[in-house]
Amino acid sequence: MIDLHTHTTFSDGTDTPTELVNKALASGISVLAITDHDSISGWNEATAALRPGLSLVPGAEISCQTADGVSVHVLGLLFDPNHQELMNTLEKTRDNRIGRMEKIITRINEAGIDISMSDVLEQLSEGATLGRPHLADALVKKGVVASRDEAFSKMLHNNSKYYVSHYSPSPELAIELIKQAGGVAVIAHPMASHRGRVISDETFGSIINAGLDGIEIDHRDHNPDEKKALINLAKSFDLVMTGASDYHGNGKLNILGEYTTNPEQWEKLESKANKRRVITA
Length: 281
Hints:
By secondary structure, this protein is α/β, with parallel strands linked by helices. The chain has a domain at 97-156: DNA polymerase, domain 1 (Orthogonal Bundle), CATH 1.10.150.650. The protein is 39% helix and 14% strand. Strands 1-2-3-4-5-6-7 form a seven-stranded mixed sheet. The two termini are 17 Å apart.
């Protein structure tokens, strides 16, 4: 099994990279991508935890925003971590998340809910990328909601009155930097309409023209009609079709390996990188 989209405690997952690797091995996964939000900090620990039977695909899920304000996530895989401009962009995105979180907390406080930045930071592992899931965990701890899922469905979704956007590169820029760094670019869950607005056909065309390599089609946030439309789009532009769990650990319904990528599609995707960067034990 090939799972190309997972998260650890270095962003908003609840498993350490070591725990994630062990769970992947136990689940029968043979190829695992670690794609923390705007961060490559978990790569070293995951590499050290590898054992025969599992190959690691180093990557990151890059937070992007279109010109008309739609949130887009691009999975960058197999890129050179020494590409300075890409690393600088990831760092700028991470740093901007602090100011964003403060604004969200202010809005929640104005609604009479007692939550503080210190409450949120208590949920953040050392070196992790700050995000709304950490606020969700803080709200659970304070008894405001019962779970992460409830926090997002009631308070933290993109259409919420508490929502605040943050600096993000355009998806076109992210793809350009990933390609410059020798990697491959896959758009994550592009049709997940319940998360908020989805990208327009015009924007999708612009992203494809920027050098997009693949589309994440099999994902729990896509319904059958959305999957069918994405399959047709991928075939029309000869894009790789991937599937992945988007696993975050505890607090989300996603199960490791619940959606996977066909080995032939993975081979096609890997061949588009300028160098073999898959890590084995």
